[in-house]
Amino acid sequence: MGATTLTSPPEEVAADPSRIITILSPKGGAGKTSSATNLAVGLAKRYPREVVLVDLDLQFGDVASNMRLQPTSTIIDLARSWPVDSAQVKLSLTSHPSGLYTLCAPLSPAEADEITADHVTGVLRALHRSFRYVIVDTDPGLSERVLSALDVSTDMVMICSTEVPSIRGLKKALEALDVVGLTSARRVLVLNRSNAKVGVDIGQLERTIGRPVDVRVPSSIDMVLATNDGIPVMESGRNPELVRAFEHLVEQFVTDDDKDHRGGKPASRLFKRKG
Ligand SMILES: Nc1ncnc2c1ncn2[C@@H]1O[C@H](COP(=O)(O)OP(=O)(O)OP(=O)(O)O)[C@@H](O)[C@H]1O
Ligand SMILES: [Mg+2]
Fold it and tell me: Would you say the CB of residue 71 lies under 6 angstroms from ligand 1?
């Protein structure tokens, strides 16, 4: 396979039927990384070696820790070797036993500032050419790098918790995205800790956000245990209710034709550009 430079035009992304799915929440601790890791593991079970999870929480990313990974290369190595080709991007990935690849965040928060918006879009486009699913975990808020990721995303998963600041924050974030014209990505709304009895009416939440909740993830100590163990619930299966919730999230990105697909594509597909 010939090396592909990272200067391909945006149309190439738009023409590709595969997905770049960015996970977003204005507030910290809403459940972005838990959702991103479980979505990625769930998709990788169906499509082994066709899913990559990118940790764009560049200062304090938790993907490596949440998945017990010890990366020898991270996104900072790509930024420092810029411009890079697709082969170099692939060499920076760390593999996970579920059949998933990850591009981990820098090991030191001090390195995060070296990564620009152009690095983000370049890396995501390169991965999009090689993988069926690119999942992007982000830091809280709408930083320039998060906006760059959204700019090339086909889908956006909004994580909201049952707290008023989280709901209000998400509403403001969506208004801001409308103002800057970032409206093309399909929007999926996840309500995390959905069963928390904290006096928030889901109908009111939906009216405030302006769309129905697509996926409800219940509150469970098993989520915290999974974070601490570094084994996502979609890998361990430790809580059937959580597994069902994340399976529902996975199904938001699987076409009807794919719903029975369980075995994935042959390993020879690995790292091959889609034709
Ligand atoms: N449904 C849930 N039930 C119980 N605990 C949860 C749930 N979802 C997430 N948590 C816990 O809340 C903490 C924060 O979750 P997570 O790291 O996924 O959030 P985040 O949005 O990525 O945070 P940050 O903004 O800091 O990156 C973790 O300890 C996680 O285990
Ligand atoms: Mg996180």
Answer: no
Taking only the tens place, the pLDDT of each residue in 192-247 is 998 877 768 899 999 999 999 999 999 999 999 999 999 999 999 999 999 999 99
- Checking if the pLDDT of 13 tops 70, the result is no
**Superfamily of domain 10-252 in the CATH hierarchy:** P-loop containing nucleotide triphosphate hydrolases (3.40.50.300)
- The answer to whether 126 touches 4, Cβ cutoff 8 Å, is yes
Nearest CA to ligand 1 atom 14: 29
Which amino acid is located at 168 in the chain?
R
Which residue, 243, 182, 232, 175, is CA-closest to 209? Answer: 175
Whether the pTM exceeds 0.85: the reply is yes
Domain ranges within the chain, ordered by starting residue: 10-252
- CA of 163 from ligand 2 middle (Å) equals 17
